[in-house]
Design a protein that fits this description.
single chain, alpha/beta, Rossmann fold, seven-stranded mixed β-sheet, 10 helices, 7 strands, globular
Length: 260
């Protein structure tokens, strides 16, 4: 089974191309985080850190730490340092210490085995502390299934979606069993109106396709990407990729407080 950790495979420029649309779920997730005056807060998978000062301001924390495993993404975090906020390289699945809030926007899907991961994160919360996370739930969309389909032709094992993503009811069950009193878990669809169908390929180039780029040499990846483009556009009913496209993108937002 392939390692799906993004590490430094991120293409920050391509990821930022749709920054405003990608920020909508993060802002919705922020609304689920209660104040934690004087507390200690972690932004897990903070990326370039754009959301970390917003999280710091909302919680009123004494200290907020943005943690990410990608040096490429953290390179932009200096622009978001404010009093009480700092950034560090770290493994999202191995965070230690005690925290009043653990916040993870579009990051935990890269960490395997959520049935084990979530109880471990809850253990890091102080009694009454909050866990809030958001993960994509679009793995059944052709943008993802076609990537695995084409990848097989290049000798690549499919990415195992199940190790890093559960369905909404299972998340609620796992969180409750881990000690979250009243898990609040919703599936929300974010619609992205694209001027052209082939913009879907740009969207996934900064995230999903980096996993395939990491496992292929440059020449093979160029061929993979062209075959992926052709197959995906045919599957979406627009072989030229020039018609407007509505990309319905479901995400799971979950939050709750640790008992105590």
């Amino acid at each position: 089974m392939p390692n799906i950790s993004p590490a430094d495979a991120w293409d920050a420029a391509r990821y930022d191309r749709y920054a405003e649309q990608r920020r909508r779920p993060a802002l919705d997730l922020l609304e689920r985080v209660p104040p934690a005056p004087g507390g200690r807060v972690a932004d897990l998978g903070c990326g370039d850190g754009w959301c970390t000062p917003l999280l710091h301001e909302r919680t009123g924390a004494a200290e907020t730490v943005g943690i990410d495993s990608s040096a490429r993404m953290l390179a932009g975090s200096a622009a978001h340092v404010v009093p009480g906020v700092r950034f560090e390289d770290g493994d999202l699945g191995a965070v230690d210490g005690e925290w009043d809030v653990l916040f993870a926007n579009a990051a935990l899907q890269w960490v395997p085995d959520h049935r084990t991961l979530l109880p471990r994160l809850v253990e890091r919360l102080r009694p009454g502390g909050t866990l809030a996370f958001q993960v994509p739930a679009n793995f059944g969309h052709p943008s993802h299934t076609v990537a695995d389909e084409v990848g097989r032709r290049y000798g690549l094992e499919p990415l195992d979606r199940e190790i890093g993503s559960l369905d909404a009811p299972t998340y609620a069950e796992v969180l409750h069993a881990a000690g979250i009193e009243e898990p609040d878990v919703v599936l929300r669809v974010y619609g992205h109106r694209m001027a052209r169908t082939d913009e879907v390929i740009d969207w996934v180039s900064g995230t999903l396709l980096t996993s395939f780029e990491r496992r292929l040499d440059p020449e093979a990846f160029a061929a993979f990407r062209e075959e992926y483009r052709r197959t995906l556009l045919e599957r979406l009913g627009d072989p030229e990729g020039t018609r407007p496209y509505y990309y319905a993108f479901p995400r799971i937002l979950a939050s709750g407080r640790r008992a105590g």
